[in-house]
Structures are given as C-alpha cells and as structure tokens.
Specification:
Layout lengths: L6 H25 L6 H19 L6 H26 L6 H21 L3 H22 L13 H22 L15 H59 L4 E6 L2 E5 L1 H7 L3 H5 L13 H12 L7 E7 L5 E13 L2 E10 L1 H15 L9 H18 L3 E9 L1 H8 L1 H16 L7 E6 L2 E6 L5 H15 L3 E3 L2 E3 L2 E9 L6 H21 L1
Antiparallel strand pairs: 1-2, 1-5, 3-4, 4-5, 6-8, 6-11, 7-8, 9-10
Amino acid sequence: MIQLLDIRTLFAVWSVLCSVLTFNLSMFWFYNREEKGAGWWALAMLTTTCGSFLLAFQGFLPSFISIVLANTLFILGWSLFCTGLRKFFLLKKGLAWEIAPVLVLIGSFLYYTYAHPDLAIRIWIFSILLCIASFRCFYLLLDRSETGLKMRSISVGYASLFLAIFFLIRTVLTFFDIGTPQAQSFLSPNVVTVIMMFILIGGYVSLTIGLISLPGQQSRNKLHVTTLNLEKANLKLQQSKESFRNLTDNAVEGIAVVQNKRLVYLNPRMCEMTGYDKDSLLNLESFLPLIAAEARETMMTNYLKRLGGEAAPNRYESLFLKRDGTIYPIELTGVLISWNGSPATLNIVSDISERKAAEEKVRFMALHDNLTGLPNRYLLQERLERALSMARRTKQPLALLFMDLNGFKQVNDTHGHDVGDMLLKGVADRLQTLMRDSDTLARMGGDEFVLLLPQINGRSGVDILMSRIDESLRPPFQFGSLKVQSSASVGCALYPEHGNTEEELLSAADKKMYNVKHLKRKF
C-alpha cells in the first residue's frame, strides 16, 4: 500500500479532492454572494488545487514551476483564506500578515532551489509559514464581538487550530531531520510523509465544511444578538416609560399634550389645577374651556403658530379658568413634539398665583405709604403724568391740592408719636370719603397730603371740596378716652392756569398752602 502511495500519487489525489472542495466553495459563493469573504475562500481553494496539481507533476516540469510556483500557490491559498475571514468579519487591519508569507516563501525557495539547493530547509520554511498562516486563521476566528461566544465558529476554529498544530509538528520533525526525504528522492514512499498527507487532507476537508457553515453560525449569532438587543431595548423603553410616568405624576406643574386642540395626555397635577377629573379633561372638545375668556384668542394664536412652525413665544403668562369659574394666573411653556406620529404640543403649566400676589405686594409697598395705605409720591407722580396727558388732549383742567395739618407737631410732642400716627390714619380715612373714584389722595410724608382732581369743571367745584375738607376735620378724633382736635391748611393749583408740568403745579400748590397757613397763624 505504501509502495503505491508515493508522494506524486498523493498530490494527484490531493489535487482532485481540492478540485471538489473548490467546486463546493464556488457554488456556495454563487448562492451566497451577499456573504463577504465567500468568494475569497473559493479562490483560496482554487489556488491550493493548482499548487497540488503542479506538485503532482514534479520531475516532469521545471523546478521553478513544480517547486517554487507550486509551494507559493499553497502559501497564497492560506493568505486568501485569511483575507476571506478578514472580509467576512469586516476587519480592516491585517493585510501585511497575508502578503508577507508569500514574499518570504518566493524569496527563500528561489534561493534554496537554485543558489543553494536544500530540500530540508525548503520543507522547514514551507512548514513554518503554513503554521503561521494557520494560526492567523485561528486568530481571526477569536471572538471580538458582543455575542459572548469564545469563537466565531467552532468547526472552522478547530480545523485551523488542528492544521496549525500539524504544520508546527511538521516543522519540528523537519528541523530534527525525522521522516524527511532529504537523504532520499522526494518521490520515494515515506511512512511519516504519507500519514501527514492524510492528516492534511482531513484538515482541509474539515476547514472547507467549517467555512461553508460559518455564515449560518454568524447569522445565528446575529439573530441572537438582535434578540438580546431587542430585549434590552424593550427593557429600556419600559424603564423610560416608568421614569417618565414617575416624573410627570410627581411634577408640581401641570403637564398636558394637546393634539388637534384636544388634550390627549395629562398628569394628575393638571386635574388639581383645573378642578376636572382626568376623563372629563380628555373628553373636552378643545382646551379653550380651561382658558379665561380674555386670554383665549392669544392662547389659540400661539398654539396654531407653534403647530405651523411659525415663531411663537415658548413661555408666556396667561389666565386659567377653573371648573368652578375661578380665574387665576399661570405661566405656560409650550414646545412642538410628535405624538403617535402626528404633530402636537407639550405644555407645562405653572400656577403663579402666589408669585403674582407676592409681586403685587411688593409693588403696593413700593407705591403706597406704609402707615396710611395711601399712594406715595411715586404713585402720585405716575397718576399725575397720566392726568396731565389726558388734560392736554381733552383741554379740560385739573386741580392739585397740597394739604398740611395744623398743630401736628404739638400732638406728637404732647401725646407721643403713636397718637400722631393714629391721627394721620384718621385724617386719611375722612378725606377718602370725599374723593371720587378718579381722584387720588396721596401722602407725601410727615403730615403733608396731596389731592389730585382730574377733569374738574372749574374753580367752584374745587372750593366746594376744600370747604368739605374743613368740615370733615372739624369734629375731634376719638382715640380711646383721648380726644384730639385737628385742622388743615390747603393750597390749590389749577392746570393750565398755574402751571403745565408736575413740578410747576406741585410748587404752586405748595406755595399757596404756606400762604394759607401763614394767614391762619395771624388770626
């Protein structure tokens, strides 16, 4: 049996088997062209077939063809296998590992075939290069993905690792000159060589089967990864929904999604703010019943602009209307979103009643006297400016009265500042009963008051008011068991008779008041 199976015969059998493997890989590539790398595997096996065919004709062909070219085709075949794996796994780096063995083999075989012929060294170089190429295939099959697998394909991995170990053993045997044909003809039968050839054939068959099954394994891995990713995505989506629900349910602001003018989503705070239950809000034909009548047009305009992609304020103040008819101020923040594939607006509503009340309190304190609650000089100045503007347009006069209490210092000195403060508040209360809604009574400080009377009919009406002021202050003020008497000196300035500006009118009224006070002191 061994006599019949010489090396040439084995390579002939090997070339026929490689032809069959080439055909299988070619058909696989033809029906799986979308698999990157399959064409390279078919080309690799074709190259190996050509190399084994040339080795089978050693002795009949020149050494350059049957030795150098044949072995170069073997190494090139392994490089093409590696290229196919690299393409299959979409690896960009590593081209040098596939080119270098081919160049090394060509150079060394030319040298040890012609310059310094040495069969053992050629076999040793050839074996070690095949060992490196096989380990390269095994390396490319190691896991670099997120699949959790240790190897891309068990069958291909074992085949390449088996061949790598085989070529490593062959390298060692060659190095120690065991079973090599260095001392005998290359074509002579050799037990070790024959056994290795059968092992080599088995390894190539296993490698081919593994390569054909590799895309299926890869597809299963991808399907597994896809399934895991979908599970992770669903879990994240569920967690996101729960987080969103927790966020909106515990929000201190009302949150509502409006689509086609209707509320399609809302949080519990929205129900608290409006006085409606959830079902009632979702059944409203539009959001307008939640808006105060005077603010509906502005709110609807902003909503339509936002849906149309036009410029609209993202945050603005408006008025909400509760189910019981209560109107209260709100601040609304609105943005355009997609809700179930259609445009909608996400609205965050804040009740700003407390803030508005605080702002109003601060404004009141800034514009009113802390003791009497009357407008101070700053608010008087604002109202006097408006009254003068109106008077200039209508040509209707106005009056400004400057009033000072007589003997106020003696009240403070005799009865104390607490009684003086009560007297000032008492005077303010009596004077306010004499004022029209359009009039302004302001405290300038100390015991000085100013009365602004817009749209008067003449001096006669002012004189009547001044007489009523004297009459209202004539009765004593009763503070417990204490009675305090008070009177006032009043100076009057008319627009435009005594001035056209605030300063001119105040100065004229102040001077007339001092004249009146001076005359009262004489008498």
